[in-house]
Q: What sequence folds into this?
């Protein structure tokens, strides 16, 4: 009979989901500091980890205040990506005609650099939050559509036919068969989308803004304040990780039955 393999406290701690990325991050920081010391890299090219940590400690209130506009634009752009991307994916997956008209245009739109068209949003909508939201939406929209289309198209037609044979309406069949089967792919697209939305919001702030992390980075580059710029990059990385984690938690709550959400169990004979 299979038995659970006992694990010590140290082994459990090392197998925790957060400890391995943390240890790898510590390794990167140590390697970064050693590289600067060994190769004598000047501070105006790459700041030391100590300088970046000092900026994070002293300027944390200001960096936190500047992160709120970026977070707001990111969340709004990501929400719009999900709100529009999933229904459009349903139309594309459900109709060959819609797919033939819309899908090639979506692929074509991704070849246009967002940094090149972002100034147009400033001209059209001013220096407010709207250009940042649009930039975040445009970068986060495509992954949602592609993943959702793949999810809806991978539904087994025999399952759909069986549900319809049991006198199920189109809406009930969609809720019982199509949507649950496509949810794992949809959440995969949402995870990619939420990280790209952070990039989109920063792109909008680069083009025209007087607040946000992108504005802090642009100002730091202009004054060659590299420690502050690296500290802003750390804030952006933390923002992306937190938003990704939130989407991942929602996924675990919505589709706990999926194989990707099951806990790993080690068996021994």
A:
């Amino acid at each position: 009979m299979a038995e659970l393999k006992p694990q010590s406290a140290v082994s459990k701690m090392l197998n925790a989901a957060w400890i391995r990325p943390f240890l790898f991050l510590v390794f990167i920081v140590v390697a970064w500091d050693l590289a600067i010391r060994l190769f004598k890299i000047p501070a105006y090219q790459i700041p030391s980890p100590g300088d970046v940590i000092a900026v994070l400690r002293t300027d944390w209130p200001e960096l936190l205040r500047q992160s709120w506009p970026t977070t707001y634009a990111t969340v709004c752009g990501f929400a719009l990506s999900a709100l529009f991307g999933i229904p459009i994916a349903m139309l594309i997956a459900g109709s060959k005609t819609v797919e033939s008209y819309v899908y090639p245009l979506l692929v074509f739109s991704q070849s246009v650099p967002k940094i090149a068209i972002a100034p147009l949003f400033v001209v059209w909508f001013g220096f407010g939050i709207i250009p940042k939201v649009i930039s975040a939406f445009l970068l986060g929209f495509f992954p949602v559509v592609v993943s959702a289309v793949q999810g809806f198209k991978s539904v087994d037609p025999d399952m759909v036919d069986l549900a319809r044979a049991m006198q199920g309406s189109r809406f009930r069949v969609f809720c019982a068969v199509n949507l649950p089967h496509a949810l794992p792919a949809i959440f995969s697209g949402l995870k990619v989308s939420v990280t790209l939305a952070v990039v989109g919001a920063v792109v909008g702030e680069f083009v025209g803004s007087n607040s946000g992390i992108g504005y802090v980075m642009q100002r730091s580059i202009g004054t060659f304040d590299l420690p502050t710029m690296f500290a802003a990059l750390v804030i952006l990385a933390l923002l992306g990780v937190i938003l990704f984690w939130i989407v991942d938690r929602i996924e675990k709550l919505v589709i706990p039955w999926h194989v990707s959400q099951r806990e790993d169990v080690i068996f021994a004979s």
Observations:
- Residues 74 and 226 are 24 Å apart (CA to CA).
- Residues 264-269 have pLDDT under 50 and may be disordered.
- Residues 170-207 form the longest helix (38 residues).
- The first strand starts at residue 3 and ends at 4.
